[in-house]
What does this fold into?
Amino acid sequence: MLDINFIRQHPEKVSLMLEQRQQGEDIAKLNQLLDFDKERRELIKQSDDLKALRNKVSKDIAVIKRSGQGSADDLIQQMKEVADTIAGLDEQLKQLAVDIEEILLSLPNKLHDDVPVGASADENVVWKEKMDFQHDLDFKLSNHLDLGRKLGILDFERGAKITGAGFPLYKGKGARLERALINFMLDVQTGQNGYTEVMPPLFVNQDSLRGTGQWPKFADQVYYMNEDNLYAIPTAEVPVTNMHRNEILDAGELPLCYAASTPCFRREAGSYGKDTRGFLRVHQFNKVELVRYSEPEHSYEALEQILANAESILHALEIPYRVLLLCSGDISANATKCYDIEVWAPAEEQFLEASSCSNFEDYQARRASIRYRPKDGSKPAFVHTLNGSGLATSRLMVALLENYQTPEGTIRVPEALQPYTGFSLID
RNA sequence: GGAGGAUUAGCAUAAUUGGUAAUGCAGCAGUCUUGAAAACUGCCGGCUUUACGGCCUUGGGGGUUCGAGUCCCUCAUCCUCCGCCA
It folds into this structure.
């Protein structure tokens, strides 16, 4: 969330940001917030003054009682009334704090100056294209659904029977290929790119969702287990960024770089009917997630590094892709700046999002209270958090199958993966 | 699932029948020193205030009270034991 002090001092910057994010209607909420904040500060002053009086008189009462001389009854009677007044003020303050918190949690992050202003995804900027990987595709192409079915490696029908639509079942060489991809990506990120591997819980509590920003805004996108009041993770970002919730880190520990492979669960409510075939949109998929905790002054270098780390996978697998710099109207509410990596699926004839690399600055750190001491003995300051997929396997699998298919309907395995699969051809 | 115990600042330890959080270590700054150590002084949870000061803070939430680390309720986590279990 944003710093209430920043909002109070620069309300015009916040409303400009809301307009650029196509959320101009939220400016009313902003004004409401400022009113609440003003009222709250006035009430705090009143309440604090009365508390100071009460503390002082309570000490006097203690002195009288201890000495055994004189009666404190009058003072106690007065303080009863003061206590009632305080209780009334604090009741109002409590409600105001709730109202303020609700608005604060719902306001999106600042935007970085690099972010192009635009109304929708159409105005995202193509930042980079890397299409020059050579695949001989001069024949009638099959899409990943047909390839998966013919080769017996993907079975969406049975996945649907077991659970429901959007829960894929991998079989034989398909399952092995998926496992190879995950292991390969983890090895690259932990070996060459310097990340520490973590294997986090797959269910999280509500505090964790709030910490990373999925709660309250995107609560309807997360699977919820009512009996135990837990949520299935929509991305490893949630458990891994919450590892250090309510902690004060030493400056020497930063940057912290974590890589985690987990399944991700998403309800995708409201998106039925669009690109739902096969892997294009699923409720469960696997992803290697990269998470960094950075000192504020280095977080934009860290963002470029995460992007490069994610790209390194596609270079090794020789899969064509492009990088988008998201515009103000398309970037997620939590991020100040975000790159999307889209892989090219030649049979679908479209780019598919396989990674999103974002800087959140102190937006999540403030929600989750993740701080560090810039120097020994100095005041704690919020860290910057970042993450990027490196990468999501579902869309990557589509691009891999479609780019590596042969005229015979078989799939070649990229050289980098062969040590992991143990075979070089899926037939 | 059941029984008992525990939770105080980065760490470790105190706090009369309820009287308003004490101390040590570590850390930071300074004095001293060629430099360092030692010693000494100050700082050493959060918010607020130009400042003086004020308020809040004993795992979270609630209650009793003029006043709660202390009494009551509730939740969480950890430890010990019993039961169940891959």
Observations:
- The domain at 121-426 of chain A is CATH 3.30.930.10 (BirA Bifunctional Protein; domain 2).
- The two ends of chain A are 51 Å apart (CA to CA).
- DSSP finds 13 helices and 16 strands in chain A.
